[in-house]
Specification:
This protein is an all-alpha fold and 219 residues long. 65% of the residues lie in helices and 3% in strands. The chain has helices spanning 3-11, 14-26, 34-45, 49-65, 71-74, 77-92, 96-110, 117-128, 132-141, 151-161, 167-179, 206-215, and strands at 187-189, 195-197. A hairpin with a 5-residue loop joins strand 1 (187-189) and strand 2.
Length: 219
């Protein structure tokens, strides 16, 4: 690739990169070799290291699927459309962990045992709306000690798990997760000026648990 082509690749907007690569990946059966090989060469030679790393990582994940990979679906317009929009989000995500969650989502939907498309779409839309702090709090809430019923104890536990996060930020993340249907309650400002949750049973909702499993946050 000459210098002019390299500069062009570097100047592509994320959505243009996603569209360009999406056309290749939707046409490849299987996902190694052929047009995808040309795509990977283009990305390796480009200076856009984030796109390069994402594509190489995704290619590795597809190979690991083995015979679980649904070749027919990967070649479909339904997959191509979701691949383009999700890769666009992954390219623009500043948080490394969130990029990995987008790649996991693209891998999950490429498998023969994938969830229903409307369920996958809903999960990805939820992921789009959570920032890195929210993902940290959700991961902490579904970690080893998930059987805490007393909400004040749950609050204290989360504070100990998300070190470096102040009470105001934790309460904001808590409310955001509640608004998304992932937490079963909202945090409130109590009379002494400190943030804490209202009394209720449980914290992570049934949908929250399924979303956590979708992202493999519980592993």
């Amino acid at each position: 690739m000459d210098e002019r082509q390299d500069r062009s690749a570097e100047n592509l907007m994320p959505s243009e990169i996603a569209l360009h690569l999406g056309e290749f990946i939707a046409s490849v059966i299987p996902v190694v070799g052929g047009p995808l090989g040309k795509t990977l060469s283009f990305v390796r030679e480009s200076r856009n290291s984030r796109v390069r790393d994402l594509i190489l990582d995704l290619d590795s994940r597809f190979k690991n699927l083995g015979n679980r990979l649904d070749d027919e679906f990967v070649a479909s317009a339904d997959y191509a459309r979701r691949w383009e929009s999700t890769m666009d989000e992954a390219v623009r995500a500043r948080n490394v962990d969130k990029r990995q969650f987008y790649l996991r989502a693209l891998t999950v939907i490429a498998a023969k045992d994938r969830p229903k498309l409307e369920v996958w779409d809903f999960h990805v839309e939820t992921l789009n709306r959570i920032d890195k702090s929210g993902l940290m709090v959700l991961g902490a809430a579904t970690a080893e000690r998930t059987n805490i019923i007393d909400t004040q104890a749950q609050w204290a536990y989360l504070r100990s798990r998300v070190t470096g996060m102040d009470d105001v930020t934790l309460a904001r993340c808590w409310d955001d997760l509640s608004n998304l249907g992932l937490f079963s309650m909202r945090a409130v400002l109590v009379v002494d000026g400190k943030h804490g949750p209202v009394e209720t049973e449980g914290l992570v909702t049934e949908y929250g648990q399924r979303f956590v499993q979708f992202l493999a946050l519980d592993r």
